[in-house]
Sequence to fold (111 residues):
Amino acid sequence: MCGKAGSRNRGETVFIHLGGNKMIRISEVVTILDAGGRRSPSTLAPYLEAARNQGRLEWITTLEEIKSYVVTETVIYASPISSLTLLKRAQQGGNRVFGLSGPKEVKKEQE
Fold:
């Protein structure tokens, strides 16, 4: 699964919980990839190996199975949360933090 998870907000900062203690701005997300897809082993392996060699692959947790990869311009996060769940969270929009115990209001960043 692959999806663009851009923010549709008007200058608001939206965060997405990727698992563990990791949260990032939705605006940083380039794509969300399914780690368990049928094409994953042959198409993702060289990409992930190159990212690992460059120090750009970050495991959010080593205790849980990796279900998705969240790609940003600088880092690839190996997440224990499914790509479908992450994509749904990213598409919810609003001035909120998604993925913890439901949405929570957060303050807008000072511009």
